[in-house]
Amino acid sequence: MTETPKSARRAGHGEDTIYWDAAKKSYVGAVSLGYAPNGKRRRPKVYGKTKTEVRQKIRDLKKEMQSGVKAPVNYTVAEAVSDWLERGLKGRDQKGTIGKNRSMANKHLIPFIGKAKLKDLSADDVDDWLDDRAEFLATRSLRDLLAILRRSVAHAQRRDKAARNVALLVTAPEGRPGRPSKAMNLEQARAVLTAARPSRLYAYLVLSFLGGVRTEEARPLTWDHVFLETKDAIPPHVAVWRSVRKHGDTKTRRSRRTIALPKMVVEVLEEHMRQQKKERAAKGLEWDQAGRVFTTRSGELLDAANVRRDFRAIIAKAAKVPGIDLKPHEWTTRETRQSFVSLLSDHGVPLETIALLVGHTSQATTEAVYRKQLRPVITKGAEAMDAIFAQGQEGDDEGGADKPLAGT
């Protein structure tokens, strides 16, 4: 007996429907999602080249509705990153945190996966992107990029613009070897300071090499936090309580510290203060209300890029000294701090003392990142720097009453 074929059943009221649209040349899935508060029936449509593709889109759409998230169809990765940079980092420093993240996203994220629709982004897409960038970037940079994407998608989720965060399913690959941190030895540090004497950056570098302050702490330093004349056997000192970060906070709570100053730093800062007063009087300028120690010729806050540029010019001058092997493009001002740590360690200062001087919460950071030599334990910061830089100074030029100001 031959089986009679069943007639096609028409979809009942409230059921999903899939049909061919000749005008659009694609299959259409009409999804039944009940009624809106105004009584109008919710019947969104999805499109695909095959019925299978349409069925999958219907399932995904229902999952989104059940989770309360309706991701915009055309919302891209680039838009998600841009929204996070504009709204997700409120209160952060524009030139620091936001500027760094924006620069990385514009160079290595948006040009490669920015056009992808966030709704369709897969873990494989993210893996492929990172694997491609691994040929050009260090592992740390790859992790930073992945963090930008993760936080951007998470920001989109909080605004119901993404159903899930596929970036959380991915691990950053190993990239190119990063730029190794390094420190100058005593001969190199002396050569750089000698080359810096005619520069406005001289006092800035003396404080950096002999005091271990971060460049972001030295640039906003004010005279009311510098104590060159003290009483009751309290040594001259500097209160490192500010940075150029948002709200003026130091990098960590432990970074807020007060450190004694070596004699060389005291002498250079005293001369720097005298010259600064003369310069302002000659130009008819009133004392800057901010009272900054290091300024531009117009009394403005130093710019990090300008300081780095002038520092490399000084290194180029120092590199002309026989036996001083320095390549300007390989050095940045932050490595004066690493040099400070290494010089103290090489002179035998205990690790725990160095950690206090540079404001590290853990000695592990000092040892793993900053210290380049390991030596036995004997003495402390300012006294050690006096001893370090006193050696071989007898033949150096005296004084410097006409030395220009430190700064840019």
Q: How do the strands and helices of this protein lay out in sequence?
A:
Elements: E1 17-21, E2 26-30, E3 45-48, H1 51-67, H2 77-87, H3 94-108, H4 110-113, H5 123-133, H6 139-158, H7 186-196, H8 202-211, H9 215-218, E4 226-227, E5 237-240, E6 257-260, H10 263-283, H11 304-318, H12 335-346, H13 351-358, H14 363-370, H15 381-390
Helix pairs in contact: 2-6, 7-11, 8-10, 8-12, 13-14
Explain what this protein looks like in three dimensions.
The protein has helices spanning 51-67, 77-87, 94-108, 110-113, 123-133, 139-158, 186-196, 202-211, 215-218, 263-283, 304-318, 335-346, 351-358, 363-370, 381-390, and strands at residues 17-21, 26-30, 45-48, 226-227, 237-240, 257-260. The strands form two sheets. Strands 1-2-3 form a three-stranded antiparallel β-sheet, with helices on one face. It starts with 16 loop residues before the first strand and ends in an 18-residue tail after the last helix. The chain has three domains: 17-67; 77-169, Tyrosine recombinase, N-terminal domain (DNA polymerase, domain 1, Orthogonal Bundle); 186-390, Intergrase catalytic core (hpI Integrase, Chain A). Helix 13 crosses helix 14 (363-370). It is built from 15 helices and six strands. The protein is 43% helix and 6% strand. Residues 1-13, 244-253, 362-379 and 398-408 have low confidence and may be disordered. The protein has 408 residues and is mainly α.
What structural class do you assign from the helix and strand content? mainly alpha
What is the rounded distance between the termini? 100 Å
Strand order of the largest sheet: 1-2-3
What portion of residues belong to β-strands?
A: 5-15%
